Task: inverse folding
């Protein structure tokens, strides 16, 4: 869970979502992990058959609150079967959608896009941490903050700003000051240190600050920022290496995604800039138009939503499952890289896509 949530923090899921551990004992020993897009009774059966006691899925099984657990529907049946056989269920859903290396990046890579970036970055996820450190301890404090997740700006790590100043204080009776004596005014050199901080890491960062700082009382400020987080948000946009005609681009979609059908709007101009969103992405049509994208690739578009193209781009519906079908590769790589010699990490053979096509 720590590995998965370091890659896709639960704080980045949408308010309506229910990512995380859905059932199971977080302290149990893992024998094997089965990865699937959806968790169904057949997927749990496969996990049992293949010796896996954890299922990691993209879509949460428990999405809406359960009022009872009687096996009255497939969600309840799946959950009962998992509990009876001690199979833990874990989901990483919109938190994995919303990170720059998540579901949409995987889809962009499959389509061969270059310079991929978040289509709709989220605001309000960052803070600035300001603290004051004696110069001889500045590097140690910064190292502790970096280790706690602070100081990351895009692909740049260990980012900070410091300025020199002078501190003044008078230690009270019974204190054990780093410099000076109780009851005596004191002044000395101090560095003002500033780092960018994801809000969800604030508690860990402050704990690291206090542990590394030499002062008995640590002065700090946390200022919430409205800046957008360029590595967290919905959808993705990038460019094709070379422009393609609309027909050539649709053929690329069919080939890269293995889809039999692409529902699309008419469009005559060459396709160069491509926006996309795995799953149901109609809410980003306007954002895709605003970026100047020539095509927007997603799933689950309704009839009236196709009018949202307004002749400015080609809307392409490849299907919900089809646009997220490679998500399992993200889970597999994360878990295999960290635990490959500890337990089996398997991709489910069960097809969970409920949609079929007749021609």
Result:
């Amino acid at each position: 869970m720590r590995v998965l949530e370091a890659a896709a923090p639960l704080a980045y899921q949408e308010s309506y979502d229910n990512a995380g551990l859905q059932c199971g004992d977080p302290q149990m020993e893992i024998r094997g992990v089965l990865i699937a897009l959806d968790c169904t009774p057949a997927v749990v059966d496969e996990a049992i058959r293949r010796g896996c006691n954890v299922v990691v899925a993209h879509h949460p099984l428990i999405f809406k609150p359960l009022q009872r657990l009687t096996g009255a529907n497939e969600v309840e049946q799946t959950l009962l079967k998992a509990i009876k056989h001690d199979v833990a269920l874990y989901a990483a859903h919109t938190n994995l959608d919303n990170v720059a290396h998540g579901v949409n990046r995987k889809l962009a890579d499959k389509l061969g896009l270059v310079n991929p970036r978040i289509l709709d970055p989220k605001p309000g996820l960052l803070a600035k941490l300001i603290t004051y450190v004696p110069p001889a301890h500045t590097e140690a404090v910064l190292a502790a903050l970096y280790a706690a997740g602070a100081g990351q700006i895009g692909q740049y790590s260990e980012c900070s700003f410091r300025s020199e100043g002078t501190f003044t204080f008078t230690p009270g009776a019974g204190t054990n000051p780093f410099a000076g004596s109780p009851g005596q005014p004191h002044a000395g050199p101090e560095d003002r240190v500033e780092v960018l901080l994801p809000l969800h890491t604030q508690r860990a960062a402050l704990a690291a600050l206090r542990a590394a700082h030499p002062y008995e009382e640590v002065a700090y400020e946390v200022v919430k920022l409205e800046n957008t987080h360029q590595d967290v948000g919905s959808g993705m946009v990038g460019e094709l290496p070379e422009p393609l005609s609309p027909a050539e681009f649709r053929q690329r979609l069919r080939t890269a995604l293995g889809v039999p059908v692409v529902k699309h709007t008419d469009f005559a101009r060459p396709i160069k800039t491509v926006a996309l969103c795995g799953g149901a992405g109609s809410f980003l049509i306007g954002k895709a138009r605003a970026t100047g994208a020539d095509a927007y690739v997603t799933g689950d578009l309704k009839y009236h939503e196709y009018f949202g193209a307004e002749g400015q781009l080609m809307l392409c519906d490849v299907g919900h499952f089809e646009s997220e079908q490679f998500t399992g590769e993200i889970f597999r790589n994360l878990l295999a890289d960290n635990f490959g010699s500890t337990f089996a990490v398997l991709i489910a053979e069960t097809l969970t896509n409920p949609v079929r096509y007749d021609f």
